[in-house]
Amino acid sequence: MRHLLDFQGWTRGEVENLLDTAKVMREVLERPVKKVPALQGFTVATVFFEPSTRTRISFELAARRMSADVVSFTAATSSLQKGESYKDTLLTLEAMGVDAYILRADSAGVPHQATRWVKGAVVNAGDGRRAHPTQALLDAYTLLEALGGLEGKKIAIVGDILHSRVARSNAELLSLLGAEVWCAGPPSLLPQALPGARLTPRLDEALEEADAVMVLRLQKERMEAGLVQLEDYIAHYQVTEARLGRAKPHAPLLHPGPMNRDVELEGHLADSPRSLVQRQVQNGVAVRMAVLYHVLVGREG
Amino acid sequence: MRHLLDFQGWTRGEVENLLDTAKVMREVLERPVKKVPALQGFTVATVFFEPSTRTRISFELAARRMSADVVSFTAATSSLQKGESYKDTLLTLEAMGVDAYILRADSAGVPHQATRWVKGAVVNAGDGRRAHPTQALLDAYTLLEALGGLEGKKIAIVGDILHSRVARSNAELLSLLGAEVWCAGPPSLLPQALPGARLTPRLDEALEEADAVMVLRLQKERMEAGLVQLEDYIAHYQVTEARLGRAKPHAPLLHPGPMNRDVELEGHLADSPRSLVQRQVQNGVAVRMAVLYHVLVGREG
Amino acid sequence: MRHLLDFQGWTRGEVENLLDTAKVMREVLERPVKKVPALQGFTVATVFFEPSTRTRISFELAARRMSADVVSFTAATSSLQKGESYKDTLLTLEAMGVDAYILRADSAGVPHQATRWVKGAVVNAGDGRRAHPTQALLDAYTLLEALGGLEGKKIAIVGDILHSRVARSNAELLSLLGAEVWCAGPPSLLPQALPGARLTPRLDEALEEADAVMVLRLQKERMEAGLVQLEDYIAHYQVTEARLGRAKPHAPLLHPGPMNRDVELEGHLADSPRSLVQRQVQNGVAVRMAVLYHVLVGREG
User: Which ranges carry the Aspartate/ornithine carbamoyltransferase carbamoyl-P binding domain (chains A, B, C) (predicted)?
Assistant: First the structure.
């Protein structure tokens, strides 16, 4: 594995292999001294052309737990303001000795292009509406922990499917792992098609007998753009305890964060025993350690 | 000691114990290689919902001198802009493996609430007007160095007492250590009462025979809010060499920084032999090392 | 060498000595584990009163490759907004235990003043239009690599000479190393004189038989200030493949970055074999390692 861009062309075996490495990393994180020398001498750059403190810190900790050096490049204080291109920014970092680029961009495809510019490894940390593969990997890891396996399991994803790279990557990955993925949301926030998933505007249909429910964040921008009204959304798509009655008993609840409590879900559900929100974040560090290890040390793989 | 929020419920012995640890840390900082492995494998997060580069860097260096990993979360680039709550931010960091939170917030009480949310240690780095305990500890440490002891010593604090968490925490701590604390400022900037301190609008009364004088920063916001006029303040409350004549000879001068030279004090006084401003900053790193050590390693204490 | 401010008073031997150290550092950067313990226990602060992610990260990596601790202070989130002076900022960092200050300021002379304020080493990372000595050092290092030597070599610098600290420092340094420096630009962007260089408004004259060509960035501010019109600049001063025909065959091309492709140079030239742009950035880390080593460990020199 040279890069992690999305799951196109991946086999189920490759994904399972990566998730096995994540399991080893999870054990490292349980130790009193949560540190291994696996990436000593490597330099990892987080290059965020769109701000995201959570994801950046998660990757940063993943890299540091493996003893890599980390540098942070964010657009807010960067040469991009001075008109430098994405490409020249990455070439500059490469010349400074960076070995892996954790790339977040507001437009789709930047990580793919980046692999043509630099020799180092590129990890997509979210590109526009397209993909967010490490989020899907941590979701898959968390679901596997909770459900034992994904084969034939019904996973409901609820919310703004149209603009969500999280939905897109999860549909791709979870279906590859044998799950049946249903995506529900208001018609104005549903794409015409989504590879790996069935789409429905009827929340109940998606929740019916679901083995797990993933709730997406509702961005304020969608309301400002008039795509949806807050009251309407809450009335018809908020995930509530009552509506969860349709899912399997104790079906776990996931959310990629940051959450708008009492918008996309009843706030208290995030703290209930069925919530895996914290576990997702924990697993996120392990999954990102595994990804960095694979792209930097196991590049032949 | 599990957390450091303020000094309510603290005994004099507990404070003295902490300051003894700070003395050991001070010695570490005098060494050619200023580093000990005491916190190896621990992760400390600075979580600043209000910007303060000085305090953040001081804590960051304290943590690094003890070989902890440090991550920085600042509101400016954070999920809070996306509506995430303080609570969810901290839970997310906890799930990523953070062991201690250095918390700065613009509203009072956030650090107290945080102790109910997370399992890790919470250190208050300033919450609204309420408390700034590590500042008071470094002030106490610096005064003890300079005066030998605080029992029966008269300490004058001058400036905007009403809005000052530094004044509040110092009144609490210095009086616990046996000092007689006087706070002087314009009537519009004096609270009705301040536990541990006597209040006066007459600067001369506070300075009279004072063993040490602590000058507070005058925030521009107070003038913009019409609480005080700059010329009036300077005329009646600026700490000048002449006015210091009322204090004991060579009474040392403290300031928590950043200073407005020639506003709250005559600028040259900050560079005079009686100024302990630099020593305060030096001791700040040692005191914060001691605090991190106590909350992370000596939590039973 | 105690500080690096500019090249006034430097001898050719001193520069060559520093570049020899950079060569050793260059070899460190070729190793699988690019790290030496040379600066263990030292603390380096990047203090940028003007943003520059590239230069900051280059210095940061240089310091980390030598195992120093690094803290970053940027004006955007700093006490300067609260009115603290440059001096008090540096004194505060010194009291926290900083050993070297990498200083970037928008006004000339701040690094010189800083040497009177702090005991630590000051490295000028660019002060107003005055100097940018580490940029000139990495340019000299790169030119020496490419040309074998600088004695009698004609180096053309093209662009906004008037406002360029890069041009100024290069003229100073390259002429000290025996080169003949020509600076070309529009009359409105040429100073009356530049020590170490000949000035000309005629691009062809500067390029004629040049051994190397250094292209400067054209700042948008110059156009906004009406000093030059974009179309005029491109028509008369853009470095194109055709115009490079006047220079010696294969004369290398340098640019301090970030580049405005197709403004100050034909974009494709930056990716052509004659471009040393990436090599400059690579050498920048090595040169900055050498500078930090000299000011921190070899201070007697």
Answer: 2-145
